[in-house]
Amino acid sequence: MIRGERYPSKTWNKECPELADDKEIVLTITHVENEPPQEGEPSKPTIYFQESDKRWIVGPTIWGMIADIVGETDDDNWSGKQVGLYIDWSVRYGNVKGGVRPKDPKAVVSDESIPF
After folding, report:
1. Residue 10: which residues within 8 A CB-CB, separation 6 or more?
2. Count of domains in the chain?
3. pLDDT for position 38
4. DSSP helix/strand/coil, 75
5. How far apart are alpha carbons 38 and 36 in whole angstroms?
6. Closest by CA position to 58, among listed 26, 33, 95, 82
7. Which helix (H) or strand (E) element contains residue 38?
8. Which pLDDT does position 33 carry in this prediction?
9. How big is the CA angle at 53 (ends 5 and 92), to the nearest 5 degrees?
10. Rounded CA gap, 19 and 31, in Å?
11. What is the value of pTM for the model shown?
């Protein structure tokens, strides 16, 4: 059992079983809220999805990538827009490797699209 199954997370991260084995998924945004700030940190946008109870807390770089993908610079208008999620293993946070990244949902490769 992988860590994300043993200790389920309430947020999207690299240990989510839904993204294991280089899977990519498409989710529909329901709304964006500001996460209460951590001590000494600014508040960050938190994205909620129709298909999942998990939320995604994002910083300015990821927020900008999503704005480009959905074609909307006001996150109040992101409701109903779709975004793909995948793990980018080239992302590094110090010694920690891997992070969730957004992508155009039309570019997501799902198991159903692979002809076997």
Report:
1. 53, 54, 55
2. 1
3. 78
4. helix
5. 7
6. 33
7. none
8. 95
9. 60
10. 22
11. 0.84
